[in-house]
Amino acid sequence: MPQEPPKSSTPTRKRGRPPKLSAEERAKLVDITKEQPTIAIDDIIAKFRKRTGISVSRSTVTKYLREAGVVRVRGARARTPGGGETAGGGGGSDGDDDDEGEAGDEASAAAEGARSYGYNESHRDLGDAVRYPCGLTDAEWAVVRDLFEKPGPGRPPKHSRRHMLDACVYALRSGCSWRMLPKDFPPWGQVYAAFRRWTSQGLFEQMYDRLREMWRLREGRSPAPTAAVIDAQSVKTSPQGGPKGYDAGKKVKGRKRHLVTDTLGLLLAVLITTADVQDRDAADPVVELAKAKYPTIEKLYADGGYAGKAARRVGEKHGIDVEVVHHPRNRNVGAWQHPDQPSLPHMPEAKRGFVVLPKRWVVERNNAWNERPRRMNRDHDRRLDVSTAWIWLTEARMLLRRLTAAA
Predict the structure, then answer these.
(1) Fewer CB near the last or first residue (10 Å), C or N of the chain?
(2) Dihedral angle sign, alpha carbons of residues 49, 287, 280, 77
């Protein structure tokens, strides 16, 4: 009977190429999807390269995530009463923790239930015999008086600076032309000259910067924000003239307002362009304006219009982390589902109507507020710097009333 050959004591070496990523590196890949469940694969590659210095391909990312049990789930379409299908959704959590997302939403809703939102008596200001309802009260004027009444050489002003500012706010709120200002205001020519002079000096932006710092301190925040939110809004222009373009996505001929706010919804930077300028092309200059004012910004939240190369380019140039907040039930992106997350709380059941997206809703709210004054429901001015000044004055007027009402 033939004898079996003796077995070698040395272990046999496995054939094939060694794994590209170690176990620790694969864990970092999974952590990225846990931090942001709706992140795109290209953004996963960029974040992974930033953390580890290793460049991986899309197939490599998909392979190792699949081995870890992480799969991409795309939300189902909800049936509308009319029989059609629509991509429904709900405002999920930020992806930090499953249970904390739902519990945090319920807690915040309970905490905000005691507050009163919408119009109240402070918004129904009737004014008095001299002041119009939109004019500044004594308490509001005391906060910003030193910005407009600066001592200097020359003869004293003929008209009160407070009265001139009230005339600018009246034109903003009522939507009237300069020539149609009521006769109890100073002559319209002098009001317009003061408005253009304050615009060139940046006084409306300075006024808002002061009010923003006051509000952040009142909320217990640092005066310098570390996170920001970016968004754009297309508005129509009047036949008055000036630069304009056509936004094919929104079917709007006019201009586009690019805003950067902090996470409280307070304005940081404004850029007005023609409507044909893409959001991703204007992201760099408007973020540069915000970074020049606050170099402390480290995080930027954006919508899907800034996804891809634009977000990575802005992040690399300005040294900030750009996070694209996708719709929780976006079928094009989906969400990464982990083995320990079978319920996917960040993708709740489909529902109709408006969906509050995490972080992004504050700048969307600002876009809606900026259209309340009648002069702002479309762009009536020829000059872009004048349109920018109206944005700062609109936001400053609302924040000034909020500050004095809360005092």
Answers:
(1) N
(2) positive
Buried b (16+ CB within 10 A) or exposed e, 213-241: ebbbeeeebeeebebbbbbbbbbebeeee
- Do residues 26 and 310 make contact, with C-beta atoms less than 8 angstroms apart? no
Rg (Cα) of the chain, in Å, rounded? Answer: 27
What's the CA gap between 226 and 319, in Å, rounded?
A: 12
Going by C-alpha positions, the residue among 57, 58, 61, 59 that lies closest to residue 25 is 61
Tokens of 360: 């992004």
Query: In terms of Cα–Cα distance, which of 364, 388, 365 is closest to 376?
Result: 388
Whether the Cβ atoms of residue 232 and residue 254 lie closer than 8 Å to each other: no
**Distances in Å between the alpha carbon of 24 and those of 59, 66, 69?**
19, 16, 16
Report how far residue 93's alpha carbon sits from residue 54's, in angstroms, rounded to the nearest whole number. Answer: 30
* Sequence-distant (≥ 6) Cβ neighbours of residue 14 within 8 angstroms: none
State pLDDT tens for residues 21-58: 888 888 888 888 887 777 778 888 888 888 888 888 88
What is the distance in angstroms between the CA of the first residue and the CA of the last residue of the chain? 102
So what's the pLDDT on residue 329? 61
Residues 6+ apart with CB under 8 A from 235: 252, 254, 255, 256, 257, 275, 371, 377, 378, 379
DSSP bridge partners of 274: 255
Please report where in the chains the tokens 């201009």 appear, as a residue: 255
The answer to whether 293 and 268 are in contact (CB under 8 A) is yes
Tokens of 337: 């589902």
Instruction: Please tell me the predicted confidence (pLDDT) of residue 331.
Output: 61
Are 371 and 74 in contact by the 8 Å Cβ rule? The answer is no
pLDDT tens track for 263-306: 999 999 999 999 999 999 999 999 999 999 999 999 999 988 88
- d(C-alpha 95, C-alpha 101), whole Å: 7
pLDDT score recorded for residue 120: 64
| Mean pLDDT value across residues 97-103 | 34
Strands (E), 206-247: 227-236, 245-247
State the Cα–Cα distance between residues 275 and 286, nearest whole angstrom. Answer: 15
**Strand, coil or helix: 389:** helix
Question: Do 48 and 32 contact (CB within 8 A), yes or no?
Answer: yes
What is the residue whose two structure tokens read 């006051």? 214
For residues 179-201, one letter each, b for 16 or more C-beta atoms within 10 angstroms of the residue's C-beta and e for the rest, the string is: eebeeebbebeebbebbeebbee
